[in-house]
Request: fold
Amino acid sequence: MTSTPTLAIIGASLTGAKAAEAAREAGFDGRIVLIGEEPGQPYERPPLSKAVLRGEKDADTARVHPEGFYDERRIELVNDRADTLDPASRTIRLAGGENIGFDTAVLATGAAPRRLDIPGADLAGVHYLRTIDDSLRLRDAIRAATRVVVIGAGWIGSEVAASARQMGAEVVLVDPAPVPLQRVLGDDIGAVFARLHTDNGVHLRLGTGVAELRGTKTVEAVVLGDGRVEAADVVIVGVGVTPRTELADTAGLAIDNGIVVDEHLATAAPGIYAAGDVANAFHPHYGKRLRVEHWANALNQGTTAGRNAAGNSDAYTRLPYFFSDQYDLGMEYVGHGDGTDAVVVRGDRDTREFIAFWHRDGIVTAAMNVNVWDVGDDLKAIIEARTAVDPVRLADADVPLGDLVR
Reply:
């Protein structure tokens, strides 16, 4: 133990920043050290694929906290990489050689973009989006581009494709699935997003992967798995992320698609917690572990982990939640569905104003509102009730949402 109680937070991300804030608010009066590899203050990532990328907002607007916040709360920002963590000696060794002793720790190391492993992947003009610097470089590249190819039609790829079109670029969106966002939304709802991108002038190349990138020093073309060749002077890769578990591995913590934690976000090592993209946490509502890679999870798990590292014992029970804005479509998704769930829609998919429910024998596991607002509390209540609802009533817009679980 340290002479002054010390909370070390590894990862100066949204999760890490909220953990530090929450620990102070919970009454922790010791030393708080927030360790991050990137210079500057912690920031949020959603604007990087939208307003910051399009140049509508400055990068500083993505900061988690205002100027002076960390000094006022005696939170030390350390710009370095944590190389090892030793639970026995309660020590973190930084890449610069410094050792930091701790009593409790929160791992908020996040995730890293999956890299392409195909010929030409190292050509100039190939971009990944994770940091503010990535977003600013990509913004400049899109502005100067003739033709942009986005590889991967998940959330990041879909949002970047939309932003690039709104910036005036010609855009091609490539994905092996038959519709965008299939893994999360399935074929039926994914088709709504396919039409959305098509209506906004994106060229969809679905049902095929990418075999090769071609160019001399800079990318000039993308060769698809079916042999077609798409010209491109900018390529953006959004094929998912991998949880950054290297530090947890040095500590001997359990790893299984992320750092394994319980409903309190605690690892098996006393006093060490994990939160955000890197945490595979047991969720009491679903009775299994979930690793969620979205903003709300980063924000709220960070808060819970910080409070618990300060001495609380709060269970993390919030339902997963995320949002996206693409062109004139805004949506919110709450809960956790999977590919075996049936889907029911109330509203009009053609006008893109509807609510989708994913359910198992009428028990709603997830719901998504598209251009329909102020229904979030009702949707959460329906999911949390775990009560079977007739799918006909789910689809009937004349049945108030609040009546579905009464």
Q: What stands out?
A: The first strand starts at residue 6 and ends at 10. The mean pLDDT is 97. Residues 25 and 241 are 32 Å apart (CA to CA).
